[in-house]
Amino acid sequence: MSIKNIPFTCCKHFRNYPCCHRQWKHTGHCRFVHGYSRSFTFCFASNELDENGFVVDFSSLKPLEEKLREFFDHTFLVNSDDPLMKTWEKLNAEKALDLRVMNNVGMESTAQLVWGWANDLLISRDNGRTCCWKAVAHENEINSASYEFMPEWFKPIF
Q1: What are the Cα distances from residue 145, in Å, to 26, 82, 91?
Q2: In-domain check, residue 157
């Protein structure tokens, strides 16, 4: 299904979640701990508008914003297979860092992760009226990655 078949769309941007990570398998400088102020853009779609004339009422996205803040604000992200995991867990226990473990800390995988979070929220409350069809994870002002997929439960009206 293409977004071209959906009559209404909108996007919401959340920004400034400072965190750090490392890509331990990378042979270049990305293997070192480094940080960014991550931001996220979510693109939503609907076949029909709500009673207020919105695809998504942006004020209703507070649970998503809270999840982003909890997971990415002043946290340290590592891959689940990081060979220094015991070290990171020890530093977390000593409150030297706030550890978050992911399958992959890369921006592509992060975009897919937060896309899922947005759709979990929408399906639970809108019963399929809306969906997130694209999530963009920005590691800074010049680099980003996206995950674009129309959820199987969302159907166009024509």
Answers
A1: 17, 22, 29
A2: no
pLDDT tens figures, 48-98: 999 999 999 999 999 999 999 999 999 999 999 999 999 999 999 999 999
The answer to whether position 153 is within a domain reads: no
Domain count, the chain: 1
Q: How confident is the model at residue 21 (pLDDT cuts 50, 70, 90)?
A: very high
Instruction: Tell me the one-letter amino acid at 3.
Output: I
Angle made by CA atoms 100, 71, 107, in degrees to the nearest 5: 80
SS (H, E, C) 110-126: HHHHHHHHHHHHHHHHH
CATH number at residue 63: 3.30.479.10
Give the pTM: 0.94
Amino acid at 44: F
Tell which residue, 44, 39, 38, has the closest CA to residue 56. 44
Angle between helices 107-126 and 62-72 (to 10 degrees): 150
Q: How many CA atoms lie within 13 A of 49 on its CB side?
A: 8
